[in-house]
């Protein structure tokens, strides 16, 4: 049943991505419009989704599970960082090395992970999704930024690491979870409304970005497929293997497998371009991973259920 729901969600996302692609191809969406939608998504709807996820009844058992999941997520990301470095052995192009090292551990948790999990399991499951996303956000703005900037170009901004919208949403959500403060009805209704538009905005933006980056040129890049293999195949396989030794509630394990199978963060080529790295190659990886993830996410979800 859940696999059927996942397939329906993937088809829905594919349709919305196609809408974004079409709007961009007809110049209905341009850079300014896409940036505006991205701003709304990153700064308003996703933080609202995080806060809503933690606006639940406090439970010591849930906290215990959350801490355990946070530990698993941290270990998992460390493994991916190591794989990303091992995978670049023998690669002479330093800029492509950067893109590869970024691709392996950095998932599109916000634009694709949160909306997908929310569709599948509802708001109650978002607490566990946040346990996976938190290390990913921190890693993005520390290790990820260090990759893009380079050793001799400076250091990542502490404000970007600790005070980005996603982390602020986590702080507010944790505060509400621990204090159990009751919000007025208009506030909870507002968060519900913002949650409902997140998937639509996220997929339209991704579709628009795919059009901008170019599908044909991306699909013929052999090196981009190598990076895609690590992101979309090895990553979920490792997560499935982890849960063969550590047992959690099936829903929680499914969420983590889905997150492990997500495409690379769409922020990668933007950061690459900003700091003088190979943004073109990064764009190709973004296109390939997002298109192929529409197949690999349900594939590895199914594999998890049968192994």
TrEMBL record:
GO BP: transmembrane transport
Coiled coil: none
Topological relation to the membrane, as annotated: Multi-pass membrane protein
Superkingdom: Bacteria
Segments passing through the bilayer: 6-23, 35-55, 67-90, 102-121, 127-149, 161-181, 224-246, 252-272, 284-304
Database matches in PANTHER family: AUXIN EFFLUX CARRIER FAMILY PROTEIN (PTHR36838), SLR1864 PROTEIN (PTHR36838:SF1)
Stated family: Belongs to the auxin efflux carrier (TC 2.A.69) family.
Name of the protein in its database record: Membrane transport protein
Source organism of this protein record: Sedimentibacter saalensis
């Amino acid at each position: 049943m859940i696999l059927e729901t996942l397939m329906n969600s993937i088809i829905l996302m594919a349709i919305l991505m196609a809408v974004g692609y079409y709007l961009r191809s007809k110049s209905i969406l341009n850079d300014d419009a896409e940036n505006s939608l991205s701003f709304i998504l990153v700064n308003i709807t996703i933080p609202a989704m995080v806060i809503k996820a933690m606006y639940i009844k406090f439970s010591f058992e849930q906290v215990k599970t959350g801490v355990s999941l946070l530990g698993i997520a941290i270990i998992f990301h460390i493994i991916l960082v190591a794989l990303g470095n091992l995978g670049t052995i023998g690669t002479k192009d330093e800029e492509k090395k950067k893109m590869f090292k970024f691709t392996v551990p950095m998932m599109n948790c916000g634009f694709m992970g949160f909306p997908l999990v929310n569709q599948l399991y509802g708001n109650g499951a978002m607490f566990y999704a946040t346990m996976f996303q938190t290390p990913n956000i921190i890693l993005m703005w520390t290790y990820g930024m260090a990759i893009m900037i380079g050793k001799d170009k400076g250091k990542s901004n502490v404000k970007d690491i600790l005070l980005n919208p996603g982390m602020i949403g986590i702080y507010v959500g944790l505060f509400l979870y621990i204090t159990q403060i009751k919000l007025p009805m208009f506030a909870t209704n507002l968060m519900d409304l913002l949650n409902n538009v997140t998937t639509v905005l996220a997929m339209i933006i991704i579709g628009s970005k795919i059009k901008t980056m170019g599908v044909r040129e991306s699909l013929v890049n052999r090196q981009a497929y190598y990076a895609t293999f690590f992101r979309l195949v090895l990553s979920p396989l490792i997560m499935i293997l982890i849960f063969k030794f550590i047992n959690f509630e099936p829903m929680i394990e499914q969420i983590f497998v889905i997150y492990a199978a997500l495409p690379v963060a769409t922020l990668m080529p933007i950061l690459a371009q900003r700091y003088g790295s190979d943004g073109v190659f990064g764009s190709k990886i973004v296109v390939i991973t997002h298109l192929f993830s529409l197949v690999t996410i349900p594939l590895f979800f199914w594999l998890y259920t049968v192994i």
